[in-house]
Write a structure and sequence with these properties.
By secondary structure, the protein is mostly helical. The protein has three helices and no strands. The chain has one domain: Up-down Bundle (Methane Monooxygenase Hydroxylase, Chain G, domain 1), CATH 1.20.58. Helix 1 runs antiparallel to helix 2 and helix 2 runs antiparallel to helix 3. The radius of gyration is 18 Å and the shape is elongated.
Length: about 90
């Protein structure tokens, strides 16, 4: 355990930040999972709405520095590909 005041404050601050980051990342993963599940079920309107929400959450998470911006962009592209494939499939049938 730290004995220096600034170190003790640093421990408290990092614990608080860690808790906030963990919560935000969990929320982000939930929104991503919603898109994947809707796409797997073949529900285009639900998948599109879930994609819109997930994109927003990914952007906020990246902007706040909880994930790398390129990670957010990659995940957004992959989710978009799933939704587009579902839309293409719906048009073809």
């Amino acid at each position: 355990m730290a004995n220096i005041k600034s170190s003790m404050k640093s421990i408290r601050t990092s614990a608080k930040d860690n808790s906030r980051n963990r919560s935000a990342k969990s929320r982000m993963r939930t929104f991503i999972k919603n898109v994947v599940q809707a796409a797997a079920a073949g529900d285009l309107p639900l998948a599109s709405e879930a994609f819109r929400k997930a994109t927003s959450v990914l952007a906020v998470t990246a902007r706040k520095g909880m994930i790398h911006p390129n990670t957010a962009a990659r995940q957004t592209r992959r989710l978009n590909a799933r939704v587009r494939a579902l839309a293409t499939q719906a048009v073809a049938s």
